[in-house]
Amino acid sequence: MHQRLLIAISFIAACALSTGASGQKVYRCGNTYSQTPCGGDKTLDTTSPNATSAAARRQAVDKENKRQMEAAKAMEKARLAQEAEALKRHQAELKAIEEEKTKAAKGATGAAVSTQAPLKNKKPPEFFTAKEAPAAKP
């Protein structure tokens, strides 16, 4: 089984290597192109146009990367500003809730004292927290 696997892998590798395309000379004879030379023996350069413009392509890629990095930094700055504003609003809401509870506790008469004590240095969670339902009393 192991030997068959090695033979299959070597066969696949040999097939992959044998399919490589090699460059051929192209001749232009008037308005036609051929692989055989004609009277003028003018050969054409068939190298990839990308090879000559590699530097220009690299510059374009670098420019695009720089633009994307600047956009990412601007988005991060905007996000941080929004988060700071949300934190300020949240703290103001917590302060207002605390003030309401302390006013309610001070304004209550002796007979109608609130059953819930005001929050003392305890903030409600900033995110949702699941809690188990209280057990039913028999």
TrEMBL record:
Residues 42-66, 100-138 are annotated as: Disordered. Keywords: Signal. Residues 1-21 form the signal peptide. This is DUF4124 domain-containing protein. It comes from Rhodoferax mekongensis.
